[in-house]
Amino acid sequence: MEADGSRMYQGSTSLTERTVIPVTDPGAQYLALRPQIDAAIRRVLDRGYYILGPEVEAFEGEFATYIGTKFAIGVANGTDALSLALRALSIGPGDEVITVSHTAVATVAAIEQSGAIPVLVDVEPGFLTLDPALLNEALTDRTRAVVPVHLYGQAADIPRIQSFCRNHGLALVEDVSQAHGATWGQARLGSFGDISIFSCYPTKNLGALGDAGIVVTNDLALANRVRRLRQYGWVDRNSSTEPGVNSRLDELQAAVLRVKLEHLDANNDQRRRIATSYSEAFRGLGIEVPEVREGAESVFHLYVAQVDNRDSLRNRLDTAGVQTAIHYPMPIHRQPGYLGRVRTIGSMSVTDHAAGRIVSLPMFPELPEENVNLVIQSLAGVYSGYLRDRESNSG
Ligand SMILES: *Cc1c(COP(=O)(O)O)cnc(C)c1O
After folding, report:
1. Average predicted confidence (pLDDT) for the chain
2. Are residues 177 and 242 in the same domain?
3. What is the pLDDT of residues 93-133, one digit of tens each?
4. Which residue in 220, 178, 197 sits closest to 24, CA to CA?
5. Is 28 part of any domain?
6. Chain CA centroid to CA 126, Å
7. Which residue in 58, 174, 332, 388 has the most C-beta neighbors within 10 A?
8. Is the pLDDT of residue 11 over 60?
9. 313 and 390 in one domain?
């Protein structure tokens, strides 16, 4: 069968044909929306307009409306989105930008790409997002912006970070790459920042079938500047007013993203349902489940539990056909490529401690209920094994 054949590489089945449940499965989302996505792709191919055309323009309008900002600008990927957002704010060499070490390396790579120095602070223990209590210590006369990361689908403490930025004249730039559609109060994440950014890497909650990124803002001047920077600094085809880059979004990706945007809320609901099932079952096993902030709605980009015996747990789950991952095993201040290039504030003990205990379990909207139950049963089996081991060791 064609559909099964095209999914073999996703690791849905192993050589022994037993079920393997992956952590994420972008191919499953394509299959779920195949007629609409194929029609959108066909429309682009037939039109013969392939980069920064009507699909990109329509998507930018639809996404801005969805987030609740005046403007959205499509770019090539999330890393570019953040570095261009910083450049549009005139942030560059000599400036400092505060963010976290517990994030995708892309966040810090983007700050470096802008020319600014990344200053990394620790995260809050339960939520694992930027700890606003540490901002004051990180502040210098070169600080220009704070980049909170809404990690795993969960909001950072936006009100406290926003008021710190206002009090100190800093730009607030949200990295919403893991939280498309998540809210704080009535508003969507991405609408709080002076300018905010999204990655649409295929595994993200709103994922393209390739690379894509988005910048959103309410500020016309910033929006126009990102539009210029994404294409050689062009104001029109004959003049560049400042040096820019090539970070365009293509029509195929925009057309696919328009289809997926229509399903984003339903897919996020489905992620929350799976998270609820997991958390209810795991609490009984004594597993530390993700804490959800009061008044904020997570979109569970990842479901990240914290455990003591992680390596043995992962091995046993793997044997049971349940794949797991670690986001992220090595904080950025410990990555060889960034040593000595980033400044860290304080002990980073929460970040370092979490890095040894976090484990990401299968989480994607198309994960069938029976597989959710299989994950739960496998974990329960592993934990009853631990209990037996402990009893026989102590007896
Ligand atoms: C995925 C991601 C990015 C950007 O990724 P790209 O691969 O450049 O699209 C940035 N920040 C975070 C937190 C991410 O998860």
Report:
1. 94
2. yes
3. 999 999 999 999 999 999 999 999 999 999 999 999 999 99
4. 178
5. no
6. 18
7. 174
8. no
9. yes
Task: State which of 84, 102, 105, 177 you would mutate to test the pocket of ligand 1, scoring each by most atoms of that ligand within 8 A of its C-beta.
Answer: 177
Q: From CA 105, how far away is CA 326, in angstroms rounded?
A: 13
pLDDT surpasses 80 at 293:
yes
Asked whether residue 132 falls in the same domain as residue 243, the answer is yes
> From atom 11 of ligand 1, which residue's Cα is the shortest distance away?
107
How does pLDDT run across 217-231, given as a tens digit for each residue? 999 999 999 999 999
Identity (one letter) of the amino acid at 100?
Answer: V
pLDDT of 294 > 80? The answer is yes
Test site for ligand 1: of 150, 175, 189, 299, most ligand atoms within 8 A of the Cβ: 175
Give the CATH number of the domain where residue 56 resides. Answer: 3.40.640.10
Mind giving me the DSSP string for 170-230? PEEEEE-TT-TT-EETTEETTSSSSEEEEE--TTSSS--SS--EEEEES-HHHHHHHHHHT
94 CA to centre of ligand 1 in angstroms = 24
Q: What is the pLDDT of residue 6?
A: 40
Q: How far apart are the first and last CA of the chain?
A: 54
pLDDT of 10 strictly over 50: no
